[in-house]
Amino acid sequence: MALEYYSGLVIDGEILRISFVQFMIIANLAIGLFLVGMYINLKKWGMGSTAYGEAPAKSIMAFPKMLMYQMSERAHAHNQSVLETFIMDIVFQRRILQRNPVRWFMHFTIFFGWMALFLMSLLMFAVEMVHIGAGAIGLHTIEPEVMRQMLSLPNVIFSYILLTGIIIAIYRRLFLAKVREATIAYDSILLGGLTFITITGFLAYGLRNENFWGLGMDPLLAPPMALFHSITALLFCIAYIPYSKYIHMIAIPLALLANKGGE
To answer: Domains along the chain?
Structure first.
């Protein structure tokens, strides 16, 4: 069963839509690149010795095993639970809050907005996959378009939350000398890429709904803009993570869980 995806190219006024299957090939390619990158990182993290005087482990399983040990009660004397560490230090990022409330608000809105949009995209993907599988055997499920409408308002809300954090980040790097001097090319690439993807998302939404975010452009541009936004988001926000400074989104929470220190 072919489910037409709301994307495509406009050639001579005709919309050539990309099928769901074709888009899933692109999505799986992005996920595959992410998994390869994570394998490389796990292998690198497992190269060291797990104890003083021992030979390097040289095993991809060395890091997960050591992480599980560090999270156990017998690893060290810190009393903070893994759950408290996860909620207070990873989700709510209280360490940043205690150092700089403005920086915390920037980080939290970017993190919260990005994660919410990511989870809703996963939910939409699951609904589409279940719909295709159920349709192949004659079962009825919620229509993807119905779910897309249900998620429309939350998507807009969290997109604005993400945009708020991005605007603060850009302002800090442009107008605060201390932040500007500490900014390296990697930081600019990450912020620029995230800004670009967020703006293309708003453009795709505006063109589809013919509101001010469409900037008065032809609504026929909505499908190719949606396709462009989706593919760049997959490649930059998933495939690129293990090969960039974005790996800190994974590495720092793991370090906090291993430390169990909190405050």
So the answer is: 4-259 (1.20.950.20)
Question: Rounded CA gap, 114 and 119, in Å?
Answer: 9
pLDDT digits (tens, 9 = 90+) for 106-143: 999 999 999 999 898 888 878 877 877 777 777 778 88
The answer to whether the beta carbons of residues 29 and 42 sit under 8 Å apart is no
**Token pair for 54:** 């021992």
Is the distance from CB of 254 to CB of 63 less than 8 angstroms? no
Q: How many CB atoms lie within 10 A of CB 84?
A: 13
List of long-range contacts for 87-94, beta carbons under 8 Å, 24+ apart: 88/262, 88/263, 89/256, 89/262, 89/263, 90/253, 90/256, 90/257, 94/263
Q: Is the dihedral of CA 139, 144, 149, 150 positive or negative?
A: positive
**Range among 8-12, 65-69, 235-239 with highest mean pLDDT value:** 235-239
Q: Which residue has the tokens 């500490």?
A: 182
116 CB neighbour count, 10 Å cutoff: 17
Q: Which of 156, 240, 226 is nearest to 194 (CA)?
A: 240
Distance of CA 249 to the CA centre of its chain: 9
Distance CA 191, CA 193 (A): 5
- The residues facing 44 across adjacent strands are none
Q: H helices within the chain, ranges in order?
A: 20-45, 62-70, 82-84, 94-99, 101-136, 144-150, 152-175, 177-182, 185-209, 222-234, 248-259
